[in-house]
Amino acid sequence: MEESTTLSTWEESTTLGMGEADYTEYTWEGVDYTKYTWEESTTLNLKNKMAVTEVSSNKMFDGLQKVFSHESTECKCTMKFGIYLPPQADSKKCPVLYWLSGLTCTDQNFVTKAGAQKYAAKHGIIVVAPDTSPRGCNIAGEDDSYDFGSGAGFYVNATQDPWKTNYRMYAYVTQELPALINSNFPVDVGKQSISGHSMGGHGALICALKNPGQYKSVSAFAPICNPINCPWGVKAFTGYLGEEDKEAWKEYDATCLVKKYNGPPLDILIDQGKADNFLAPGQLLPDNFVAACTESKTQVTLRMQEGYDHSYYFMATFIFCRDTTTVITLWPRLYFDMTTVITLWPRLYFVRFIFCGIRPQLLLYGHVYRGPHQPPCQISEVIYTQIVIDLDDCSDQTVIQTMI
């Protein structure tokens, strides 16, 4: 068959009988990428032919870790992204996690060092890891320093010459890339999540805060929380956004954005190593962000991890975590669609757990919410101090009844 085939969706490609070895490139018809929202991009048919080229593919935990390249309309250059397709993606649409990496990183750092694929395979989650900046744009000075230019796009839309043509990583991550992923892979578009590390943690926070409802959850490792007040951020924002308009800087600062956030409730998770060599010098400033969240009544959990630094050893340790002290936290970073609905009947509590394809054993502790006009109660006040559900014996929607 021809090397390039025009397709509309991932499903259409599979019905054409195209195996892994049959093609390396596929295209679709699409809209002008400078004029769309992320919601619209999932339903529109494309006008301009664009290509995605497979660079590599490796089997991993019965899924596939792939790398693709494409010509970006936002960054005006060739961009790469890594994508892990779990085995479940062969038969159904899956939730997707976007991972944003930090300074000096490429699309490969998270893919090769974090060890997330094992858990993504288990829970049926697609993981997308884009590059951290445009590459090869031939801009004077783009490769001169580790914290500005190549590998340091800071997830902003630059407004200053000579950066503004290519350095549009915010639009790329929140608009162009999701549209491309949604059009070509078996993604459940209503279940997107975002996370990142350091500069990428900053990116994850601002993307979630600036796009209410786009992401089901947001979390970060050692994020740059208040870039307008740290050396890394001041350097980047001065170069990309200009020194004169400091108000424009605030539109890419999570500590500023959370104070005016007005969207669906967020429950933000941050892990920060206490031995991080960038913490004491004031590059990360997590306390500033927590204070702003308190002021705006935004839920945030900051977990200070003893002895851990800024490296991927830290991230690999906590990329999968269970927190049995809360009711519904099972996998804060890579799992984000467990919700609890409780209906008050005269003598019964109906607790309904909605899952998306996982099959572990769930231990439920803590508070049960009894309804808008009833105070919370401990589970022990109903019947149990602990409820154990073996999901292998349950349907995807399971109802537990407890008498009071």
UniProtKB/TrEMBL annotation:
Subcellular location: Cytoplasm
Record keyword Hydrolase present: yes
EC number: 3.1.2.12
InterPro entries to which the protein is assigned, alphabetical: AB_hydrolase_fold, Esterase-like, S-formylglutathione_hydrol
Enzyme class: hydrolase
An MF annotation (GO) of this entry: S-formylglutathione hydrolase activity
Isomerase as UniProt keyword: no
Main location: cytoplasm
Active site (record annotation): S198, D276, H310
Listed Pfam families: Esterase (PF00756)
GO cellular component: cytosol
Domain of life of the source: Eukaryota
GO biological process terms, semicolon-separated: formaldehyde catabolic process
UniProt cross-references to SUPFAM superfamilies, sorted A to Z: alpha/beta-Hydrolases (SSF53474)
Keywords from the named record: Cytoplasm, Hydrolase, Serine esterase
Family indicated by similarity: Belongs to the esterase D family.
Primary role: Serine hydrolase involved in the detoxification of formaldehyde.
Protein name: S-formylglutathione hydrolase
